[in-house]
Design a protein that fits this description.
There is one protein chain. With 300 residues, the chain is α+β, with helices and mostly antiparallel strands. It folds into two domains: 3-190, Endonuclease I-creI (Roll); 213-298, no CATH class. The chain contains eleven helices and eight strands. It has helices spanning 3-14, 18-30, 47-61, 88-98, 116-127, 146-158, 179-188, 192-241, 250-261, 267-273, 280-298, and strands at 34-35, 39-44, 68-73, 79-86, 128-130, 139-143, 164-167, 172-176. Strands 1-2-4-3 form a four-stranded antiparallel sheet. Strands 5-6-8-7 form a four-stranded antiparallel sheet. It is rod-shaped.
Length: 300
């Protein structure tokens, strides 16, 4: 199952009292595809939505609001379910109960104490999605109108997250890409289990990234050591070809011999193998002398 599905499952488990059911249903209806004077229509492929929405409609409105459900199989194997409430009388009752006007906007009178999380959970069930955090951090709400998108952003600001907005062909999207803000929002709407999963994934990704950076750094240092060793060996061999080895000081002769015998060692490791061990900078200083001598012989 997808990460979005897991979030929806968590939301479903939190809709467990009258105020939360009322607020959740309000979020689902308000952000549905169509709301007119004669029809309310919502569409979803979510199994969780399919199990939650009809129950909430019946719980809040009883038999006074008839709901028709139509399933449309898709080529990819999923099923698009269309939910319709038709007729002016039941639609008017819903719109009056939730104060839903022609220009849809969020009405805070519909959000009793401590039910804002349930409302946002309902919005997520209708038009929300979150990408698998193994791939990227991205949570998005696709609002059916510009006004609803603006109201939703204001509400999200009030709970401490700061969405960006993007207009698509027929919708307006409010989205988050900062992992900490996604974690905060998931917790707020009741998906704490998914928050913990996201945090665990983020920690694992961070560990893997650190290991990769360390390995890349180690490889770069190895390449640098090999390149320097090859250059030093060429200098020493040039000095040998020109008969200059016996003219070197004992310290330079000792280092040159060690380098030819140990081309894979670092400067620090070579320094510890000398009769009188010296540090990396001292070894580097001696190799600069050997390089200058080799360059002198090349120019003869």
């Amino acid at each position: 199952m997808s990460f979005s599905h897991n979030v929806r499952e968590c939301i479903r488990s939190t809709i467990n009292d009258h105020d939360r059911r009322f607020a959740c249903l309000y979020g689902m209806l308000l952000f549905g595809r169509t709301v007119t004077c004669d029809e309310i229509c919502l569409k979803s492929e979510s199994e969780v939505f399919r199990s939650v929405f009809p129950v909430l409609v019946k719980t809040v409105f009883g038999a006074a609001v008839p709901l028709t459900i139509e399933n449309k199989p898709r080529k990819n194997g999923s099923v698009l379910t269309i939910y319709r409430i038709t007729g002016r009388t039941p639609v008017t009752e819903i719109r009056h109960t939730f104060h839903i006007h022609q220009e849809r906007s969020i009405d805070m009178r519909n959000l009793p104490t401590n039910s804002m999380g349930a409302f946002l959970g309902g919005v997520f069930l209708t038009c929300g999605s979150v990408t698998d955090p193994m791939k990227e951090y991205h949570l998005e709400f696709s609002a059916p109108t510009e006004q609803l998108c603006k109201d939703l952003c204001d509400l999200l600001y009030s709970v401490g997250v700061h969405p960006n907005v993007m207009q698509r062909k027929y919708t307006w999207s409010a989205y988050l890409k900062v992992s900490e803000e996604i974690e905060d929002l998931l917790t707020f709407i009741g998906a704490q289990k998914c928050t913990l999963e996201l945090i665990e994934i983020k920690i694992n990704k961070d560990v893997i990234n650190r290991i990769n950076r360390r390995n890349n750094c180690d490889l770069a240092n190895i390449d640098k050591t090999i390149s320097a060793s090859e250059r030093q060996c060429r200098d020493i061999q040039e000095i040998i070809r020109k008969g200059g080895m016996n003219k070197l000081s004992p310290d330079l002769q000792e280092l040159a011999g060690l380098r030819l015998e140990n081309p894979h060692l670092s400067l620090a490791e070579l320094g510890q193998m000398l009769k009188k061990p010296i540090g990396r900078s001292g070894v580097n200083h001696r190799f600069r002398k050997l390089s200058a001598i080799a360059e002198f012989y090349r120019n003869l």
